[in-house]
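ok so I'm stuck.
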Amino acid sequence: MQRRKMFTFITLFGISMTLSILIVLAAFYEHIFSASYPEINRDRCLYATLLEEENTKESGMRRGPMSLFYINTYIKTLKTPEKVAYSTVPNTVNTYGNGKKISLFFKYTDPIFWEITQFEFLEGKPYTQRDIDNNESVAIINDETRDDYFGKNVSAIGKTIEINGQYLRVVGVVRGCPITRLVVAADVYMPWHLQKRASVTNELNGNYTAIILAKTPADLPKIQQEYADLVPRIPLSETGGFKPDKLNTSLSSYFDSIVRDMFFGAGGSSARSRFYLFVVVFALLFMSLPAINLVNINISRILERASEIGIRKAFGASAQTLVTQFVIENIILTLFGGMVAILISAVFLWWFNNSNLIAYADLAVNWTVVAVALTLSLVFGLMSGVYPAWRMSRLPAVEALKG
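replied:
not stuck anymore, here's the structure
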């Protein structure tokens, strides 16, 4: 490592930076897709997030979230699920509180939303169907909104918050979650009946998504099949001059719904396999370039030791012994680079979690990610060390002694 410090630095930099990026990306992946607060029941949940009305004759399409009418009429009538909840997609609003302007994400939900999700209530309790029946103007806020609007750690229960010209009585304060948990995250939650625009319409598209909770994970395929059998029987109607003749929609796991909706649309098939293929190809390309560079660097490093190799071969060292020596040296170097990568990643993730770039971010390097990083370090060591070591071990001793 000390023979040519520049080569050592380049090697460690290439390994540590490559692995650091992969570890951070893995942490983001886990942060977005794993079952975590407040969606700890993702393993027995399905999501209805997107609906496509298609005119196959004229190649027209209308795509978006679902209407309240659609969810109540078709999804809530499914017999297999244990519970069905719905909420709007997050919207932003500006309000003023505690002497400053505050930008907030808000959404409308039904009371069952609080039964399926597992939010931690720091104060108060969720609103109920009785509040909706009594047309109560109530809201639930997260702790960050409470601190910004009313003051740090000041109790908000019973106080009023203004959202979109509506004055709402706070009935609960929850521990917030990052906005990256799109289906459940918001700063302010309100019961659906407070939505200003009409919530009752016969249109299929709207601004709602649904969470379907199964009794057990084994019931998920049954729910999907029941819904798939229902979709062809849903009547389509002309709205705004658009005449759809096909409906594309499905109930999917959280991972499938996000990947499909972002990249393939509601009619997309095999979204999971295509996404993983993209990830694997990207990872291989991303790792191959540093590996090729490391092979070239290691060839240069080993060529400088030609006289050493010649002396060892003259004293009877076999090709296998020399290859083993150089591979072990390279593996130690790459493992050291892997440890540096883990340290860099841990420091970066700690900084990111505390930077408030994403409120409530909980990215972490867990043992699975550490194991992957160390495995990748070994792969790097073998990829960049075996070929140059094998090449030099076959060099005749006389030529090696000549340098």
